[in-house]
Amino acid sequence: MQSNTEQNLNDISGMIIGASIEVHKQLGAGLLESVYEACLVEELRNYGLDVEQQKQLPIYYKGKRVKEDFRLDLLIEGKVVVEIKAVDKLLPIHEAQLLTYMKLTQCSLGLLINFNERTLKQGIRRKVMNFNEQDNPLRTSASPRLRGEKKENTNIVTE
Prior knowledge:
By secondary structure, the chain is an alpha+beta fold. The protein has three helices and six strands.
């Protein structure tokens, strides 16, 4: 049985995917990432969702904040990270980028969406990260040190 939080995240995820499919249906493949992002933001706001666009995340190096920030494409309802791509093929570095943003925001759900696909379904990757301290760690390229924090245990599930 799903908890209310899991159901809420699944509902939000479903709305994001539905909005992405609508944008792809209207625009097709072959445009710039920024175009898809702007249209997806519009569609998500039409669904009544809270959308933060190009959210800045500070970078810490050896405990000090540096001038540059990470910029995640979209943060939906403060709970779901969405990373948008318009590339020939999704690569492991794109997934690592999503996982880094999920760790930095402590969001357990992330979507990587590549609009440069004939059918959008082929371009969607859903990632779930468990921040439970009792679970075995699965290391990724994202480091808690980026946040100026000590090591934490996380599990990552690819769906």
